[in-house]
Amino acid sequence: TGGGGGSTTTSSPAAQPADAGFKVALLTPGPVSDAGWSAMAYRGLQAIEKELGAEVNNQQATDAQIRDAMRSYAQKGYRLVIGHGFEYNGPGVEVAKDFPNTVFVSSSGAGSSANAGAIRFGLEEGFYLAGMAAALTSKTGRLAMIGGPDVPSIRSTFKAFKAGAEAAKPGIQVSDSFTGKNDDIAAARQATLAALGQGADVVIHQANAAAQGVFDAAKEKGALAFGANLDQNDNPSGVVLASAVIVAEPAFVALARSVKDGSYKGGVQLMAMKDGAIDFVWNPALASRVPPGVAARIDQAKADIKAGKLAVPMDQF
Amino acid sequence: MIEALVGLLRFAAPVAFAATGETVGQRAGVINIGLEGMMLGAAYFAMLGSLTTGSPAVGLLCGVGVALTLGAVQAYFTLRLAVDQIVVGTALNLFALGLTSTLYRARFGGSGQLISVPRLPQFGPGLDAALVALPVLVVAAAWGLFRTKWGLALRGVGEYPAAVEAAGYGVARLRFQATVVGSALAGLGGGYLALGVTGSFAENMTAGRGFVAIAMVTFGRWRPAWVLAACLLVGWVDSLQYELQARGLGIPAQILIALPYVLALVVLVAVGKGTAAPAALAVPYRRER
Amino acid sequence: MASLSVRSVSKRYGPVRALTDVSLEIRPGRVHAIVGENGAGKSTLVGVLAGFVTPDSGTVELDGRALPLGQPVAIREAGVDMVHQHFMLVPAFTVEENLALVRLGGLGGRLDAPELAREAVETAARLGWSIDPKAPTGGLPVGSQQRVEILKALAGDKRVVIFDEPSAVLAPDEVEDLLKVLRRLADEGKAVVLIAHKLSEVLAVADEVTVLRHGRVALSTERAQTDAEALATAMVGDSPGQRHAPPASGATTLPDRADRPSLTVSGLCAKGDRGNTALDGLDFTVRAGEVLGVGGVDGNGQVELAEVLAGVRPFTGRADWTPGRPRVGYIPQDRQSDGLALSMSVFDNALIAGLDDPSLTRGPFLRLGALRAWAQGLVDRFQVKTPNLAQPVGGLSGGNQQKVVVARTLATRPDLLVAVNPTRGLDLKASAFVHDQIAAAAEAGAAVVLVSTDMDELAALAHRTVYLSRGRFVDRLVGADA
Amino acid sequence: MKRALVTVAGLLLALVLTLAVFGVDVRQGLSLIAEGAFGDKFGVARTLVRATPLVLCGLGMAIAWRAGMYNIGGEGQYVLGGLAGAWVAKALVGPAPGLANPAVLIAAALGGALFAGLAGWLQVRRGVQVVISTILLNFTALQALSWAVRGPLQEPKGQLPLTERLPDTVMFQRFDPQTDLHAGVFVAVAAVVLTALLLWATKAGYLLRLVGQNPRVARANRVDVGRAQIGAMLVSGGLCGLAGGVDYLGLIGQVGDGFSQNWGFLAIPVALLGGLDPLGVLASGLYFGALMAGGEGLARFNQLGPTLVYVIQAVAVLGLVALNARSRPKPVVDDD
Ligand SMILES: Nc1ncnc2c1ncn2[C@@H]1O[C@H](COP(=O)(O)OP(=O)(O)OP(=O)(O)O)[C@@H](O)[C@H]1O
Ligand SMILES: Nc1ncnc2c1ncn2[C@@H]1O[C@H](COP(=O)(O)OP(=O)(O)OP(=O)(O)O)[C@@H](O)[C@H]1O
Ligand SMILES: [Mg+2]
Ligand SMILES: [Mg+2]
Prior knowledge:
- The complex is a heterotetramer.
- By secondary structure, chain B is mainly alpha-helical.
- Chain B has helices at 2-27, 35-53, 56-80, 85-108, 129-147, 149-159, 161-166, 171-198, 209-219, 224-247, 253-271; strands at residues 122-123, 127-128.
- The N and C termini of chain B lie far apart (60 Å).
- By secondary structure, chain C is of the alpha/beta class.
């Protein structure tokens, strides 16, 4: 498998379409070594393997490869194929018609059928809280967001971050920059330096594998940063104040379980804070950098979000 | 101000190192399309070296060593077998991309952690040893090319190799030496990207810098100092576009990201026809028996 | 005592025996000429002496010590050097840098080109040559480039200096000067080896002559004991029919027939490759059936004139063909660089002349079958020695390469034929063949402009000759005794 | 024949060696690759579908390199083809759906041709080497694509960085709903025949080869060398652009950031391996297509990343050029 991390994901090519075992596949847009979006999904896949004893497999597949990869897995008797991104939704719905015994689920996306659908991770909620925390922590009143590619999922989280910052401190300035690439650490670093150079002192990223450049730039300029997708609080740069996290494991396991026991119904399922799929995790090591009262305010907002009292803006895509 | 300049220098340094080496190479008639692959291979092994030994200096050496190894492969094919340089370079790029990505995934793929390794120690306004070495290397390259006997023979090889051969100096040997200089500096560039700029690694993290370095050699008219200036100019435009993005001017990011490439193209078009290009650039040399 | 002893040297290229059991003595203080037809093995032999060709067997000794064959550097250090037929100069370098290149004495250390070149510049002065050491070499006229090349070969204390067809690119007065230099080098005690096709040059300067035929020594003799007739016989062998009568000297003047089609040129100006004024207001007329010779020292606009007439160089002024438009045939001066694509086949190299022939093409398409028959016809008619049409043309000998160029050019039956030094480097037989073809073309009604640095060639073919100097016509060749 | 055998053996050896070096069970690896490439109708379809852009772009590279133009901008030209196709599709799908398919192909070829023609023009008229300009144009094209699918060509809802999906009626016919194999493969086959005709049986093709081998000879024969070079670039870019159009119409009917999967870059080794000859390009395109398809199979059911395929390709190219080192045609670079 693309993960290559060990013997955990090997499977035999001897494919039996019959139900020799419960098999789950994951398609990712980037390498699962990206320490971000794809890595997070890979953890979910590993959880499926561990908790359900499933045979799992994954492949990086983009654009023209997507349909073919989906069909291949279905053909080999895979019961669940997760496509980790909005771009897998359309192909999944389409391919699902030909393979009724396989369920195709994308992360984000709007289309669905009896055996196809989507899980929408509400990472915006985490970003909203991060925006609040950032605004309340910032001394300069300027925040920065650094993105890799300019895609709707990232834009939506940035909007939520900005909304959270506005809510906490109206009139605060939030800039956004995109490097266009997930792999160019130096570019992420330079984009961060440029944003910090214009006065920002707190930065959040959606740069996946290039995120180290964001953290290092923040460290160099004495700024603070937020982690994204995975819990990045222990990053050696020591500047990560908190992380907006997707906890894919329970969501993926629940999904796989529903497929395994035949109860999967299709549709688009929002997995958010109240479901335990999104979290906002403080870095205890940097607790001293958080102004007093901020933690409590964030806790309150978190509770409000979970209780449905606070609606975080989320784009549909 | 000084720090901003040093910051710019650091951002431009990986390309500048590689372009300086490529200038020496092209002067000898060697075009190294595999520069990107050499930088990427160097970046990975520099990171690995720094990670395992804890010494960024050792890491940098590992990077240079790997680039030299790829350079030796390149030399074997282009010099011994007289295979077209562009063919070999293209294959080397593929090779390095595949190799580093596969190794990286095997070793770090499942961790979900960002890589962070010891960076080169900095002093003063953010300087480090390699950064200080950069202008020295540029001067050394210029000196070597234009003020030494070796440089005369090397430039001759890039212009009309048969004449240098007739003068008694092996074309293959000189081109090999140019390849060594070129790949060592490519290794320094890739290693510096990993250990001087980012202290990290990601698959394909060079993101086209090797190709840009090749273009910068033409931009700088095959003169080390001008090539350095070209790298700094394009690096400056590249960091400027992030400033513009952060200012939120509403210009689409994609257009800004394309800016440095468009600039380089426009300058090349404006500079136009020149006789500066070594006449035997990319021409395989086969000795008549 | 013999300076250089060649003992039983043999060399094969695949099936071709370039040299078979060649032995000869080359002595100090003497000019030793080597002559032979195209492909006789001359270049191969001197290549062996200079170390660029490794023989299959045999030895070469310099003063009784074996030369390290196949090692040009070591051989040069031993005191044997060579002036190459194709200049070994870096065009982008200055004269000084080119001279320094062969005097580096290793690649370590600082470059001081003026210092390294000083001895050579002094030698130049001694020989009465004025050469600007700072001039870019590529911009010099061919004759000057050759002087630089000679100065390179004289570096250090050379015992043996070899010249491979040095006169081929020179104008007559330059040839004369060159021969003086050869004599002078010999008088200084060096052994001088000269390859030349022109027997007049050989006889003028040589002390000894060796004739190669089919890679073997056909004759080796003192100059005093031979003459042109004997050498020519040795070169081509005795078989009857192989000998060529020298072309009728001094073609008859053509009656000026005003009704014939003609090329009328007036106020013709053109720039050279470096933006210099190469042609500076020329006026002349050539009529169908006439051969107009253009002479002069190389680099005075001859090539540019030919290129303008051939339609490959822009110009100002007028050049009108009346009536209608002429079919132009062009034999460029350097067959290897401008005439042939060496790695392409004989067929492909001929093909360029067949493109405009409606019977060989159909719209944008080639009629490959018809073209092949046509190309085979050319090869047969012009006696091109090639195993087949698919043979890469670079594998033919120089003479046969030139035949390909001439054949395809004349195949189009041009109204206007422009030829530049069409027999350069060809042996007597091949030269005569080419001359016959050009004369036949004129007879058949082509107007011919023949640019040549060879006075004999002009005398043999041209109805009248004009001379170019600095882009203008002059009455006669300055300094020439033709 | 003997050379063909040596070639096949060499390619196999490259594969085996790479697998062994990376610790893959060679037998299992080979069988995974074989299965992924030809094992069933999915495999065969996958191979042909991957080979289609490789062959088209490879032909493009062969034409340019034959003319002595080192076009390494196939990637950008492919992308521009896709973009131009998407642009025309956006305009035509509503009003004239019947015309859309051929119009997209024509637009794609034109888009790629103009983009490559620009690089050719830059070399001929401004002295900027094609090698250099196409590098820079590749970057520019990718950003142009990225911008266009978020701007003028974005799907109507304005949410995704993708163009609107083409209706099936406009797309190429598929032979089997379960596989991606589409009628676009015929375009590739036709292109092989046409480029072979162009190179070997037309005046233009002959001049193009002559210009690549020795531009000075062409010049001395009143051939407009610059025109031939620009022409070669136009054809070359047209083929790469066409590849973009064919993939657009055949595979997903959408254009987004990841539209090109490095086809334009991989086409260079394809063309070289194919000896810059259309039939050779067809063969090497199929080999690479099979390798890509098989590599996906390998990546999916073995622990190796799809990136290992790149290593195999690189080793194959190096191995083959080493074998061919003596007989390969050598383009002469114009020196003024
Ligand atoms: N590198 C080579 N490979 C194969 N054959 C060669 C090579 N060089 C020369 N020959 C062949 O060897 C023979 C002798 O060639 P050589 O160049 O010595 O002749 P030459 O006397 O110099 O002729 P020319 O007067 O045309 O220069 C010819 O038949 C030629 O074709
Ligand atoms: N049979 C052959 N195979 C390969 N190369 C050959 C062969 N014959 C000749 N050559 C090479 O082709 C070139 C031209 O050969 P040749 O020496 O006959 O031409 P030339 O007459 O000396 O050239 P010029 O036109 O300058 O007088 C030489 O470099 C020679 O080594
Ligand atoms: Mg010769
Ligand atoms: Mg000759």
